[in-house]
Amino acid sequence: MRDYEKYIRYRTFPSPWCPGCGIGVTLKAIATAFAELDLDPDDIVAVSGIGCSGRMPTFFNTNTLHTTHGRALTFATGIKLARPDKNVIVISGDGDSSAIGGNHLIHAARRNIGIKMILINNGIYGMTGGQVSPLTPQKFVTETTPFGNIEPKFNIADLLMGAGATFVARETVNRMKPLKDVIKKSFLHKGFSVVEVISNCHVNLGRRNKMKDPISMTKWIAGRTVTKTQYDKMTPEEQDHKYPVGLIHENTSRLEYSELYYKHIVPAAQEAAKKGPGGAAFAAQKNTITYRGSK
Ligand SMILES: Cc1ncc(C[n+]2csc(CCOP(=O)(O)OP(=O)(O)O)c2C)c(N)n1
Fold this sequence. Notes:
This protein folds into two domains: 248 residues, Rossmann fold (3-Layer(aba) Sandwich); 30 residues, no CATH class. 37% of the residues lie in helices and 15% in strands.
C-alpha cells in the first residue's frame, strides 16, 4: 500500500468523475500531502458543498461532511470553532465557492479562520452540465453563454487578498509535485488558506470550445501557466489570459480566528455567566483584546 492510500476510502469508488478529470489528480495531491505530513485520518475533517469537486470528501478515509451548495465554509466554520485542534479542509468548485458561496468565501478570508480550502477551478458548473461560472474565461461558450461569455472573470486571488486572506496560492493539475507541495504548505499555515487549482472540464467546457479531450484542455492550461515573476512583468492585457502559479501571498502576523475566540470570547462568556444578569456588559468592559501577534 502506498503512503497516501491510507487516506483513501476505496469502498466508495467508482467516482462520478469523467475519465481524465483533474479532480482525481487533485485528490491524489491532497492525499499525498496528508501522508507527507503524517496526519492522523481521525484529525482531518474534509468538508464540501455540492458539485463534482464537492464529491471528493466521499473518497477520503477521514471525517467527512458533504453539505449543501455553496455552504461548505459555514459548516467548516462551526467545526473549526468547536474543534480548533482538527485539520478542517474544504474542497469546493468554482461555482460553489465564488458564486453561491462567494459571500462565505470573503468572510472566511476576513475572519482568518484556520480552514484549509482547496478551490478547484475548472471554469464551469461541471456537475449540472456546463453553465457559466464567475471564473469562466471571457469569450468561452457554455450552456448558458451560447454566443460566448461577455463577463470578465474574478481574479480569485485578488478577491481573497482584498478580503484579508492570509494564504493564497495557485497551481494547476498539470503540475502534480508543485501542487502537492503548495497544498502541504497551506496545511501548515495557521489562518485561512486557499489553494486555487486550475483544472480541466473537457466534457462540459472543453467540448464547447474545441478542446473535447483531457490532453487538449491540459495543453490549454499549460499554455496559460506562468510564474509570478513572469506575470508581474506583463501588461494587464497579457495578464488577463494567464494563470500565475505558486505561493501568491502569505501573512503570518494575523491571529487565527478560533484562537482569538478561545482567548477572549470564551473566558469573557464564562465570566459573564458567573455574574448572572448584566454579566455580559461587565465582562465586555474587562476584555482587552489583542488582535495581532502575541502581546
Ligand atoms: C441551492 C442549490 N442551487 C443549485 C444547485 C444545483 N447545482 C448542483 S452542483 C452545481 C454547480 C457545481 O459547479 P461547481 O461548484 O463549479 O463545481 P463542479 O461541478 O464544476 O466541480 C449546481 C448549480 C444545488 N444543488 N443547490
